[in-house]
Amino acid sequence: MAGQDSHCILVRVMKSSCHPFAVALISLTLLLGKASRPSVDVHNTIKGTSSIDPFFKNLYIGQGIPNHLPIGRLVIDLNKTKESQFIDRDSRALRHWYASDASPIEVGGYLFWPGEDGSLYKYSRKQGHLKLVSALRYTINGSAPGIENSLCAYRNLWLVW
Q1: How far from each other are the two terminal CA atoms of the chain, in whole angstroms?
Q2: What is the DSSP string of 26-68?
Q3: How far apart are CA 132 and CA 33, in angstroms?
Q4: Are the beta carbons of 90 and 136 closer than 8 angstroms?
């Protein structure tokens, strides 16, 4: 039947005694409106906007509200429908708050992910995994403010709003 391969991912907030606001990702077929894959528990509130990598079929999720520690960045392998990588806090960051409200952006084959820890991370990508290539750590007037907004890029121009 045409359209059965079209999926949408929903975020469901659940309350439990262990996680006041646990989150699960649910994949649905658009045609039938039924679950097409097992749900994925991401253990914390999704803060900011997630980003899909259509080339590697990864879903990148930033967490920012520590309902359950630790918080960090997640890579969800959409082919396997599971969390394939958790990226914890950066011990070399200038600010020790590891929330990730901003969406990552792909530029030139790399994934750039701004953090609220005063760093801009550059990752190489593959199915279900990111590998840190470099990190730009910055200060403004002696402090390391984080980036909560997403990046925009066009050719050699970058904007953080």
Answers
A1: 44
A2: EEEETTT-SB-S--EE-SSEE-S--EEETTTTEEEEEEEE-SS
A3: 37
A4: no
Strands 105-107 and 7-14: unpaired
- Cβ pair 104, 122 in contact under 8 A: no
Whether the CB-CB separation of 95 and 116 falls below 8 Å is answered with yes
Render pLDDT for 124-148 as a digit per residue (tens, 0 to 9): 999 999 999 999 998 889 888 888 8
* pTM as predicted: 0.79
- Taking the CB of residue 130, how many other CB atoms lie within 10 A of it? 24
27-56 CB burial, b ≥16 within 10 A, e <16: bbbeeeeeebbebbebbbbbbbebbebeeb
Contacts with 17 (C-beta within 8 Å, 6 or more apart), sequence order:
none
Give the pLDDT confidence of 87-129 residue by residue, as tens digits.
Answer: 998 999 998 888 888 889 998 899 999 988 989 999 999 999 9
R_g over Cα of the chain: 17
Determine what percent of the chain is predicted with pLDDT higher than 70: 75
CB atoms within 10 A of CB 18: 8
Longest dimension (CA), the chain: 60
In the structure encoding, which two tokens stand for residue 161, read together?
């709003």
